[in-house]
Write a structure and sequence with these properties.
262 residues, alpha+beta, Phage tail protein beta-alpha-beta fold, 3-stranded mixed β-sheet, 6 helices, globular
Length: 262
């Protein structure tokens, strides 16, 4: 089954392999949840509804395990009374979820992620602390290979005797060193993928280069923008494959093309 999960911001990085282990049962649970988000179409009409009711309905309709970091006396979190006004018709559940998240962003940067066999929703700050952070390894050696580009190639011309005259040998122009290429790659990631979450910009996520790989410690909502998921979402047998893309903190779905009937 052809299935692509790619970040539009950093497409080359998605071609690398992601090396991390997770129990098969957890992967299956996550694949099942992602499948529900991708292949369940929803029509909703909420007018100033408390987000607690909205998310309860969302969980019930999808029949998934979900945990929301609600605000309490002791902990900061999503206020259950936050009102949600939203009307959508026949949209994938993940699109509905993203629109709910947009409404919640008014209070604090919010995200959803897959962890511990359930869908989590909470402030990004809560996900970048403690056990929510995962260390994953990305092989990026293929991204550091530079094709030689001679910008002063020899000039070919015609001599007076009718032969071909080649100019002098050319030199390979100056290129970035390996360390410079690595620094450029890391800067691209930390500037364009959840910029405020990286330690270099005051956040808690870290990224290091070691023996041809990037070691990234970050929560799921950051990792999926770098390498997608290592599993495919479970697809109902009666539905065609859909493609999901993670980019700039947002998720988009590409539906299969419907042939024109004349």
């Amino acid at each position: 089954m052809r299935f692509l999960m790619r970040s539009l911001v950093l497409v080359p990085l998605l071609l690398c392999s992601v090396l991390f282990s997770a129990p098969d049962s957890t992967k299956y649970a996550h694949a099942k949840i992602l499948g529900k988000l991708l292949y369940t179409d929803m029509s909703v009409s909420w007018d100033e509804q408390p987000v607690s009711d909205v998310l309860h309905q969302f969980q019930r309709d999808l029949d998934i395990d979900m945990f929301v970091f609600w605000k309490s006396k002791d902990k900061d979190g999503i206020d259950k009374n936050t009102s949600i006004t939203l009307k959508l018709t026949n949209q994938p559940a993940v699109v509905v979820l993203e629109r709910i998240i947009e409404k919640l962003n008014n209070a604090a940067p919010t995200a959803w992620q897959l962890r511990d066999s359930m869908l989590e929703i909470g402030f990004k700050e809560q996900f970048t602390n403690g056990s929510a952070m995962e260390l994953r390894t990305y092989d990026v050696m293929n991204l550091l290979f530079t094709i030689r580009d001679f910008d002063n190639a020899p000039i070919m011309g015609t001599t007076g005797g009718g032969g071909v005259n080649f100019g002098g040998p050319a030199n390979d122009p100056d290129r970035l060193t390996k360390d410079e290429e690595v620094e450029k790659l890391i800067s691209t990631i930390t500037d364009f993928v959840e910029s405020e979450q990286w330690k270099v910009h005051g956040g808690n996520c870290t990224i290091r280069f070691y023996k041809g790989s990037l070691l990234v410690k970050a929560p799921d909502f950051v990792h999926r923008q770098l390498g997608g998921y290592s599993f495919s979402p479970l697809r109902p047998k009666n539905m065609k494959t859909r493609t999901i893309n993670f980019s700039g903190g947002n998720t988009s779905v590409r539906l299969p093309r419907v042939p024109n009937i004349h």
